[in-house]
Write a structure and sequence with these properties.
With about 160 residues, the protein is an alpha+beta fold. It has helices spanning about 1-25, 30-35, 40-45, 50-60, 65-75; strands at about 35-40, 75-80, 85-90, 95-105, 105-110, 115-125, 130-135, 150-155.
């Protein structure tokens, strides 16, 4: 009985170290994330899966919708500032402010002043590229136009 307890304790300690090591490997460098990122509209469309691209092409076949989408997304900037402040700025000047924090190592959680939130999974982050996969959006039932978003670091 005592032998089984010792084995259980050793296994628990090893599992704890292994879990901690795996989590630290997936942890996002917030200093690398902090700064200004510009939405790469063309790359995001070029990398869309065929089914989503077909839907996108149907939506954008209407020139007015295409114009609205381009006005909303082309040259969109996102700012991950220190102390968890976030700003999204569209080309037309509209701004959205929120707070941000990293959850579970690679999930960005945004929360606006009205309490509505969005989550994005960070797929890639380096000095010049950020790739996000849209996660949950509270208080919404529609799917996002772009499920994978490509950003370039602003110079």
């Amino acid at each position: 009985m005592k032998f089984n307890k010792k084995i259980a304790i050793v296994l628990l300690i090893l599992t704890s170290f292994t879990t901690q090591n795996v989590l630290s490997q997936n942890k996002i460098d917030t200093e690398l994330l902090t700064g200004t990122w510009v939405f790469d509209y063309d790359k995001t469309i070029a990398e869309m899966d065929p089914e989503k691209l077909e839907d996108f092409n149907k939506i954008t076949s209407n020139p007015a919708r295409l114009s609205l989408i381009e006005e909303t997304y082309k040259n969109r900037k996102i700012f991950f500032l220190e102390r968890g402040h976030y700003i999204q700025e569209q080309a037309n000047g509209n701004k959205i402010e929120a707070t941000w924090k990293i959850k579970n190592g690679n999930i960005i959680k945004l929360l606006n002043t009205k309490g509505s939130g969005k989550s994005y999974q960070i797929v890639k982050l380096n000095n010049d590229q950020l790739i996000l996969i849209t996660g949950t959006v509270s208080n919404r039932k529609r799917t996002p136009l772009f499920s994978t978003c490509y950003f370039k670091k602003a110079q």
